[in-house]
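Work Package 4 report. The design task specified in the project plan requires that, given a folded chain encoded as structure tokens, an amino acid be chosen for each position. We show below one input record used in the internal validation round.
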């Protein structure tokens, strides 16, 4: 087997948290239809960006006259509220089918890393709560971007890119694997974590 290192995405790959992260944006703003539509539009356009980028864009579209300093303050306050909602939800939502089994099995044969757009401090808190920390060599979150994380891991491990496998459910995961020359295993309706485990255990 040529793969030596596997880098997992988190939300939507190891835990079933995509919907709660999506819904949390709507909890932060008025329930007026106009507001809802703007939030939907922004999420359709930049769903895989960090919460800070998304919140900034929503606020700018809701209040085009807001001064930059006021905007920064508003983004930070809403991001803190968003973080609390999402962290609490991510600690207790269902894992994706087979997630723990995959981590237990593959961590014995490969070096595993975690890469997410969730802020790193919050990400590590969620992983600790789930008692998954020991499965990973390291855990990376925002403000690191996914391609930079992969380059960092390649350098740390002294690997050729083709020795690293990225596992994720989003375009950002696929794009980061392409940019770094690594392999990619998509998690979607056709490909599950169980298929990943079967493939790399045979």
């Amino acid at each position: 087997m040529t793969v030596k290192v596997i880098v997992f995405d988190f939300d939507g790959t190891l835990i079933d948290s995509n919907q709660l992260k999506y819904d949390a944006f709507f909890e932060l703003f008025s329930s007026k239809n106009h507001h809802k539509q703007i939030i939907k539009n922004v999420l359709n356009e930049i769903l895989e960006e960090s919460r800070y980028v998304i919140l900034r864009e929503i606020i700018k579209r809701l209040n085009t006259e807001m001064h930059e300093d006021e905007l920064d303050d508003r983004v930070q306050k809403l991001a803190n509220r968003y973080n609390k909602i999402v962290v609490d939800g991510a600690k207790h939502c269902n894992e994706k089918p087979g997630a723990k089994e995959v981590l237990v099995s593959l961590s014995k044969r490969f070096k595993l890393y975690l890469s997410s757009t969730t802020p790193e401090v919050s990400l590590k808190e969620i992983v600790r709560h789930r008692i998954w920390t020991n499965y990973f060599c390291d855990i990376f979150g925002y403000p690191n971007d996914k391609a930079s994380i992969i380059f960092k891991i390649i350098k740390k491990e002294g690997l050729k890119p083709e020795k690293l496998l990225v596992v994720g459910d989003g375009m950002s995961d696929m794009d980061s694997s392409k940019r770094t020359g690594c392999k990619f295993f998509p998690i979607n309706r056709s490909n599950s974590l169980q298929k990943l485990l079967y493939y790399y255990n045979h």
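DSSP finds nine helices and five strands in the chain. Validation will be extended to a larger panel in the next phase.
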